[in-house]
Amino acid sequence: xxxxxxxxxxxxxxxxxxxxxxxxxxxxxxxxxxxxxxxxxxxxxxxxxxxxxxxxxxxxxxxxxxxxxxxxxxxxxxxxxxxxxxxxxxxxxxxxxxxxxxxxxxxxxxxxxxxxxxxxxxxxxxxxxxxxxxxxxxxxxxxxxxxxxxxxxxxxxxxxxxxxxxxxxxxxxxxxxxxxxxxxxxxxxxxxxxxxxxxxxxxxxxxxxxxxxxxxxxxxxxxxxxxxxxxxxxxxxxxxxxxxxxxxxxxxxxxxxxxxxxxxxxxxxxxxxxxxxxxxxxxxxxxxxxxxxxxxxxxxxxxxxxxxxxxxxxxxxxxxx
Length: 321
What we know:
- The protein is α+β, with helices and mostly antiparallel strands.
- 21% of the residues lie in helices and 29% in strands.
- It has an 8-stranded mixed β-sheet with strand order 11-12-13-10-14-17-16-15. It has a 5-stranded mixed β-sheet with strand order 1-6-9-8-7.
């Protein structure tokens, strides 16, 4: 249905400072051309990479924030954004501005027609000189620009066509492009974005009936992790998955987080070439982390979980890729 999870985003008060932390603490790549800011769309966003090739790692890491200035390009977005903050909880350490899904233009057109036929609420931003392409948010309308989860079950989804992303042609090659001669500890790609929900079955029903979007496999019950997980895949094999998670017990990590902060974005997981070498790199950077010898979340393999205090509450993990 969708080609790509465009980014693993985070709304943070100072995206420039968070970018420096991600570079210093994790070794993520930045570039001045990957920083986006417009006068008529008052926000700052960095589209960071864990690997320099977008074909190898098309899902980016996106610290961003919307400024308290008139939004001439999309005057309705301020109200919508405030409703998202209310929905997720203003004190939640991890908040999304949207889970951005990208699809080819003809699929995008067909989806919009389907939403109209089904009389489902959505809102589109006007095209501007800065952003001369379509962007669509589920669960709101121009006359009521306040998010409600009836369409996507609380996933806060934004959809856009692939074409404006200007991905390199090799992104779409089959088999999917692989990193060339990676060194031990090199990051390869963002592999997964976790998202906590209260009722996984309800969220999946809404994605199925409203968007015709299905999990890439059966729902998994991970007893050791204390949650049920549905993995939403994409046609680009190198895209990160969207892992939709429902806690099955209160005292697991997911259950404690859900019952402390509520549903919403959870981990950003990055695949590396040589997990032990990445652990050495993190130690050299002075980055605190937990080495989990065997995690059911990654098929019983080892997992690195960064101490969220290192990144102002954002939860990053590393797995062997």
